[in-house]
Amino acid sequence: MDEIDRKIVTVLIDERRLSATDLARRVSLSTSATTERLRRLASSEIVRRFTLELDAAAVGRPMTVFVDMRLRRDVDKTSADSRLLELESVVDARHVTGRYDYQLQIASVDVDELDQLLESLRDLVGAEETMTRLALRTVPGFPRQPAIPQT
Length: 151
Known about the structure:
It is a single chain. This protein is elongated. A hairpin with a 6-residue loop joins strand 2 and strand 3. It has five helices and four strands. Helix 2 (20-27) packs across helix 3 (31-43). The model has no long low-confidence stretch (mean pLDDT 93). By secondary structure, it is of the alpha+beta class. It has two domains: 3-43, Arc Repressor Mutant, subunit A, CATH 1.10.10; 63-134, Lrp/AsnC effector binding domain/regulation of amino acid metabolism (RAM) domain (Alpha-Beta Plaits). A four-stranded antiparallel β-sheet has the order 2-3-1-4, covered by helices on one side.
């Protein structure tokens, strides 16, 4: 990444809905040069995707829950990964270090759905132990993108 690429990414982080033409103006390049740089950033996977973000509460899933999960010893992590994808209320899953194997983020309709999910984690995925935390609010300004180190 050169300085222009850093500027493109920084502008997009702050203003995701800019057109290619507006972005080009902001970084002082032609639209075609800006578009080509965007393609290169995507093909090199510096930019992984251009995406739409839904408000979970607005689509009927107002409960954000974090579940730490430890698998039974006989459960293969690759199998667990696949089974987690089958659970539609699981919106993020991270394999982590420490006492637990996974940290899951859940967007749940209500407590009953959460209870069913926890049962599915045991029965379908192979969880031996879970620890569940309900998110009360998101701190303003988060989540955010990682900072780009300056060269």
